[in-house]
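Good morning,

Attaching, inline, the backbone tokens for the sequence recovery test we're adding to the shared suite. The designed sequence is right after.
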């Protein structure tokens, strides 16, 4: 955004074409939610067109190359926008120039995605295209197919809602876009700072207060932003220096912020873009996903909270002086109105059961109105335009990732490879669900090292999701399992994007921060296995069994935190006992719980027994 003179009540001049396009990108989605003037294919094509144009304006050089791509994108995406769903009705009569248009449109998409996102997803898409048109027809047996011509492949991927303009980009255009705009308004209205101030008032004065501030604020803000790295940059710029100032090691401070920011995508009510796609893919209400995610997300943050507390206790870190912290009630009276839109969002989703898109749209309006309750926070035209611009730029990566992932999903559907892979994976696992879950976890983590969560979820859900469901897992549990590891990849070395971003703020080694983050987030890596084998944690089943499962998981996570942090017990043997006891508590079943209780108790009492034994034998 260019710098211009700005007086009281004046409108900032947006002379930068990139800013103008970003603002119109966001406005387009607000208008669409309110009026719905476009058919399905038109909406998806306009959404992707804006993302491509913005990507070209920001990331492509030199200027003549940029202009050429914009003209070609306008021609090829404009064709789909103009005809819309009509194109689907003449897929069998595709003309040569339509195939040329499709090749150009897909090539531009892959090129911009390569620049903006990374090479991994575009390469997967290119391999999928090669498999469809060149390689698959030559492969014998289960892995091959009858062969598809370039004409048929491109027409299905470019002119229908089964490829580039498939379900992922559909969810991005209808729902994700509105929540991204909502997150931008939350940030620019001062609500993000309000969350931080309330967190400081709640936890700043207790043991390890700054670390706990990071956990609480990142949980709330991360749910809104849907991006771990963005959350690290937003809240971490305040919480990490604060943690270091009060005595936390740099690596630990970076890890706390990275793990807390990453968990924001697991935390209702928003949970990031992939959760909305999950709702569409599974054909279940978004609220069902939110309900299922409540207990696992709270357990995740309970584990991080414990680790911060134990680290503070070990190193003797107290909280900040109460005199330096905001008063809770004063903060709520002063800034609490800025969070009213979050209450409205939850009410609209749970009460009248509005669609997520409508709920977010009305919450944006409420956010703007509530900002004027106190003039100092009022969102004037400059702030509104800045929020729209910010949201437009944030949408680039999500839209591109969804469109390229749509190519992969489209190819799997066309060739039947998805169903074949399901059979192959079940054979590879030797009929063992546990081995299949490990393969799924590794696939999601490896892909997640170079891809946004939404792309990881879409690709892995398409490739391995059917195998998990064929094994007998409930579809929601299977997809949440994939969702979790796609998220946790951003704190998993060697390419731990959230940990790297936090390490940059903390001024420490990214590798050390990454491994500390794995240590802090270890409970998060175990939780998906827990709810697979104990579905009661997803609030499914008898209420008594649900309560027992939650208590058992809480006890297991507490023992795990004690064992990993070596607090309050420093004996290596006892720590090993605690970790083993935590695993036993986490495993469903009365006998395993009893064994965990016995082993955990033994670990706690062993140091005092050994001390008495040594004293007696002196």
């Amino acid at each position: 955004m260019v710098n211009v003179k700005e007086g009281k009540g004046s409108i900032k001049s947006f002379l930068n074409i990139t800013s103008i396009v970003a603002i119109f990108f966001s406005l387009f989605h607000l208008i669409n939610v309110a009026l719905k003037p476009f058919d399905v294919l038109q909406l998806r094509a306009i959404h992707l067109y804006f993302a491509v144009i913005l990507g070209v304006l920001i990331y492509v050089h030199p200027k003549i190359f940029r202009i050429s791509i914009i003209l070609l994108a306008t021609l090829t995406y404009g064709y789909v926008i103009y005809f819309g769903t009509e194109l689907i009705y003449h897929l069998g009569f595709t003309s040569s120039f339509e195939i040329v248009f499709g090749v150009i449109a897909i090539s531009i998409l892959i090129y911009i995605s390569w620049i903006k996102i990374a090479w991994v997803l575009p390469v997967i898409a290119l391999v999928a295209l090669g498999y469809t048109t060149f390689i698959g027809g030559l492969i014998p047996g289960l892995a091959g197919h009858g062969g598809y011509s370039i004409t048929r492949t491109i027409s299905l991927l470019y002119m229908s809602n089964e490829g580039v303009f498939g379900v992922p980009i559909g969810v991005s255009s209808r729902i994700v876009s509105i929540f991204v705009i909502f997150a931008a308004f939350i940030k620019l209205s001062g609500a993000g700072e309000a969350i931080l101030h309330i967190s400081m008032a709640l936890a700043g004065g207790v043991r390890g207060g700054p670390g706990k501030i990071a956990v609480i604020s990142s949980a709330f803000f991360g749910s809104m932003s849907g991006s771990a790295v963005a959350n690290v940059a937003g809240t971490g710029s305040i919480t990490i220096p604060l943690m270091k100032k009060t005595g936390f090691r740099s690596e630990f401070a970076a890890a706390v912020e990275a793990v807390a920011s990453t968990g924001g995508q697991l935390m209702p009510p928003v949970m990031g873009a992939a959760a909305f796609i999950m709702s569409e893919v599974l054909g279940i209400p978004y609220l069902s996903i939110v309900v299922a995610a409540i207990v696992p997300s709270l357990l995740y943050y309970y584990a991080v909270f414990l680790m911060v507390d134990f680290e503070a206790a070990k190193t003797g870190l107290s909280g900040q002086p109460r005199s330096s912290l905001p008063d809770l009630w004063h903060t709520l009276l002063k800034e609490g109105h800025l969070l009213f839109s979050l209450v409205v969002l939850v009410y609209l989703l749970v009460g009248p059961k509005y669609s997520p898109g409508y709920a977010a749209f009305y919450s944006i309006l409420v956010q703007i109105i509530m900002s004027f309750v106190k003039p100092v926070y009022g969102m004037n035209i400059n702030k509104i335009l800045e929020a729209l611009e910010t949201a437009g730029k944030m949408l680039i990566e999500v839209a591109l990732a969804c469109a390229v992932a749509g190519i992969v999903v489209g190819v799997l559907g066309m060739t039947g490879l998805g169903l074949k892979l399901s059979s192959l994976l079940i054979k590879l696992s030797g009929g063992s669900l546990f081995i299949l879950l490990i393969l799924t976890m590794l696939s999601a983590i490896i892909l997640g090292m170079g891809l946004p969560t939404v792309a990881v979820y879409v690709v892995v859900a398409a490739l391995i999701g059917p195998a998990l469901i064929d094994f007998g897992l409930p579809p929601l549990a299977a997809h949440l399992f994939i969702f979790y590891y796609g998220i946790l990849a951003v704190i998993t070395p060697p390419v731990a994007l959230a940990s790297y971003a936090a390490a940059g703020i903390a001024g420490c080694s990214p590798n050390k921060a990454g491994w500390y983050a794995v240590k802090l987030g270890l409970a998060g890596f175990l939780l998906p296995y827990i709810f697979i084998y104990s579905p009661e944690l997803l609030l499914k089943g008898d209420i008594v069994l649900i309560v027992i499962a939650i208590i058992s998981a809480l006890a297991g996570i507490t023992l795990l935190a004690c064992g990993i942090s070596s607090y309050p017990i420093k004996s290596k043997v006892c720590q090993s006992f605690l970790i083993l006891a935590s695993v036993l508590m986490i495993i469903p079943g009365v006998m395993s719980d009893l064994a965990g209780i016995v082993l955990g108790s033994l670990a706690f009492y062993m140091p005092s027994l050994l001390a008495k034994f040594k004293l007696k034998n002196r």
